Amino acid sequence: MKIKKLFQNKKFKHGSLATAITAIFIAIIVVVNIVVALLIDRFDWKIDLTANQIYQVTDQTEEYLKNYNEKVTIYVLEEEETFKTYSDLYTQAYYIIEKFASLNSNITTEYINLTEHPDFATNYPDVELVNGDLLLVGENGRYQALTGDDLFTQSYSDDYQTSEVLSMAEQSIDSALAYIVGEDPVNVAMISGHEEIDLSSIQDVFEKSNYNFNSVSLLTGTIPDDTDMVLIACPSVDYTADEIAKLVSFLDNNGQLGKTVTYFGSASQGTLPNLEAFLSKWGIQVQDGAIHELDSNMIYQNSLTPFTTVNANDYTSNMPNTSTNILTPYLKPMQEGKADSGITVTTLATTSETCVRQPADADANWQPTNDELQSYAVALAAKKTSGENSSQVIAYASVDMLAFLSEPVVNNGDFVLATFNAAANRENTIQITPKSLTASTLGISSFQGWLLLILFVIIVPVAVLITGLAVWMRRRHR
Question: Does pTM surpass 0.70?
Fold first, then answer.
């Protein structure tokens, strides 16, 4: 009878019911967690909450992989868990690598520790492989190795006081996949001998997009026959008549055309009569001085560092987004001029209409006036066509824009790569710019800091305590 009364006791019944409900609820939670974990692993259901989506590939890569039909194995030369957890950098690279495999069934990943399998490297004697490298091998026999330097790079400020780490994993893998299917690289000759700006720091961005660079002096040599593009990087010394003749001959290509000259200028340049006369024949009119932006909403640091607008045209059609501005410091004044017969000129990007030119000989009292305001060209593309072939000269008014190729909040990287690819007739080539892996900090004022302290350290705990006491008192007096 005592046992029967125990089961009929209200406290026992309510307590047992509560315990049973709690146990069932916990069991459901455990099962749901197991199922969700399996689904996440099976269908890659992960949410990337980083500011610039560092664990995701871009839409361009996803679109490229839809039509990628070559079977490729990405060999990661390390134990999987070791590679994934070696550092935050390699964790990011790990998820990018696995993302490629999840988007295309022709791409698979395999993790191999070279220390335990030293014979693996003997199959690829022309590349030096170490633990931590990647090796992409196609079923067609072509392969390419990627080192840590191909996956990551470090970018420094002009004064070397600050730096940021950039991930190039996605673009390096894209480039390797393109190489495996036989896409030819673009050979670029960088002209030297005129006190040019050193662009070695930005070559990585282009090399990972399948561009090859070599240095050429027109004073002592000639442009190699296999060169697709000549790069003139803001010279301070003018070209000789003989050098100009070599550029003209290169673009003519024995009447076959199909070549490109790219020129980057700067407000810091002096007058270069021969080079400017060459550009003028292609409808690119260059002036001396510097461009000032007078609209405070369109400047970065000062009037000499304006944000400018990308124009929609054939050269920019492959950009993921043309609505974001580009940052173009120290613009050399440039406008579309009268070109020689058979040459058409396209304006690729422009300043706002609130800009003014400061002449190079302006004195210290120079002040802009509203009646001088106008828009200037930021980049111009001149094309000469014969039959199905064409040669082009593309001029950019700001060499300093190249310092922001990897900056995610402006469109410099996408713009320059798109125009280079269009000039090289690489219409189907994807373009990926590096992603910053440097942690960003939450910038708040001292007042905002005190508000957060009061809210989460004082108000919220006190509110929880009062609520708990009120509930306890109410139940106690029932």
Answer: no
